[in-house]
Design goal:
This protein is about 80% helix and about 0% strand. It is mainly α. Helix 2 packs antiparallel against helix 3 and helix 18 packs antiparallel against helix 19. It is elongated, with a radius of gyration of 31 Å. The longest helix is centred in the first third of the chain and has 34 residues. The protein has a domain of about 60 residues: Alpha Horseshoe (Serine Threonine Protein Phosphatase 5, Tetratricopeptide repeat).
Length: about 400
């Protein structure tokens, strides 16, 4: 009886070992296929590895990473959960699952995973670096800076942490601190296109557009197929009034990233500056197709419609914009200008009045409301508005006051 029991236990062990060998063989085959770029067959091999050994934590983890590459995030999350369940000592699993949670914008869950990873490996700088990303996403900038400081103290050659800290300082307006970190990055390596792009963004925020262009040039030289670099350089060219160069960069951005609404929008702005209002409308249309709630494009399209005498569409766009932004004084002023042009003076006065209510020293709205009142023969009230605009040192009001209000 005893020998029979031993034989059965030995048989069970041999069978389990055979299943483990089968699982390991499929796992190695999956590794070879994934390295060759054959993702689907690699996943199929991992399916067979897990079928042979349902507790194979590393197989779940590898399958999760592959599923992320084909945007199957829910399945990847389930695999990471099983990887951690079957291998509690697989601390990297918390790191990887946290990164996936960041990707799907589950910032609270991401931080929980990074906390677990940091607690399991307190000397690993990558944990603090990753947790900082979740804190930045959640706008907890103070804790993010603390974690990035810790990551850098653990590894002073960690360019990623310096880059993250530079980006965070840029976000909160500490431009000099951001520049200091980027200088450190460049001392370690000049081959950092995103660092050059970030430095360009800092210069642009400081209105140093020529320096910004030089930084974007370096970023583009290192990575010529990154759309955002051309968009950013185009914006700097636009601010320098180099509209030809700006449009060229926006064109390149669109070639690289056809659904970039900001490229279409800013190309529309540049075309408007070139008095190409029809071309601007086409670009605003495309930006709004990409994002129907892109109200800045709707606002600027209204102006372009007015310039092309499409008053009905212009009014419709101003109405849409004001519904979304009921406290924008410029929108009421602009809609008032359109109604003035259409000789709807009472409605124009109502819009100018709302603009002035929102911004009492709105010199343009004061002048135009005064003119609208003059058109309705309300001369005394009109001249009061025009004088108020003149007293704000608005030169056109000075001229109109002399013309209409001085006996």
């Amino acid at each position: 009886m005893k020998n029979l029991l031993l034989s059965m236990l030995l048989l069970i062990y041999i069978n389990a070992q055979a299943q483990q060998d089968i699982a390991t063989s499929h796992y190695h085959r999956a590794t070879e296929l994934s390295m060759a770029g054959d993702v689907m067959n690699a996943i199929a091999e991992l399916d067979m590895a897990i079928a042979a050994n349902p507790s194979f934590g590393l197989a779940y983890a590898k399958r999760a990473r592959l599923k992320i590459t084909i945007n199957r995030y829910d399945e990847a999350m389930a695999d990471y959960n099983l990887a951690i369940k079957h291998d509690p000592a697989y601390f990297n699993g918390y790191h990887h699952r946290g990164q996936l949670r960041l990707l799907v914008e589950d910032y609270k869950g991401a931080k929980e995973d990074f906390n677990a990873y940091v607690n399991s490996a307190p000397k690993n700088f990558e944990g603090f670096e990753a947790r900082a990303l979740s804190e930045i996403a959640a706008k907890d900038y103070k804790k993010a800076l603390e974690d990035l400081d810790k990551a850098i103290s653990l590894n002073k050659t960690d360019t990623i942490a310096y880059m993250e800290r530079a980006f965070l300082n840029f976000q909160i307006g500490k431009f000099k601190d951001a520049e200091t970190d980027l200088v450190t990055v460049f001392k370690m390596s000049q081959n950092k296109p995103y660092a050059h792009n970030l430095l360009g963004n800092i210069y642009a925020s400081e209105k140093k557009e020529l320096l910004a262009v030089q930084s974007y040039n370096r970023a583009i030289a290192l990575s010529p197929n990154v759309a955002i670099f051309y968009l950013n350089r185009g914006l700097s060219f636009q601010n320098l009034n180099k509209l030809k160069e700006a449009i060229r960069d926006f064109n390149t951005c669109i070639e690289l990233e056809n659904n970039n609404k900001l490229a279409y929008y800013n190309r529309g702005i540049a075309k408007k500056q070139n008095q190409d209002f029809a071309g601007a409308i086409g670009d605003y249309n495309r930006a709004i197709e990409i994002d129907y709630q892109f109200t800045e494009a709707i606002f600027n399209r209204a102006f372009a419609y007015k310039k092309t005498s499409n008053y009905e569409q212009a009014l419709k766009d101003y109405n849409t914009y004001i519904t979304a932004h009921p406290k924008d004084d410029e929108a009421y002023s602009n809609r008032g200008n359109l109604k003035m042009h259409l000789q709807n003076y009472e409605e124009a006065i109502a819009d100018y009045t709302e603009s002035i209510r929102l911004k009492p020293n709105h010199e343009v709205a004061l002048l135009n409301r005064g003119l609208a009142k003059l058109f309705l023969s309300r001369n005394e009230a009109g001249c009061i508005d025009i004088k108020a605009s003149k007293d704000l040192n608005y030169a056109p009001a000075e001229e109109k006051f002399r013309l209409f209000c001085v006996p």
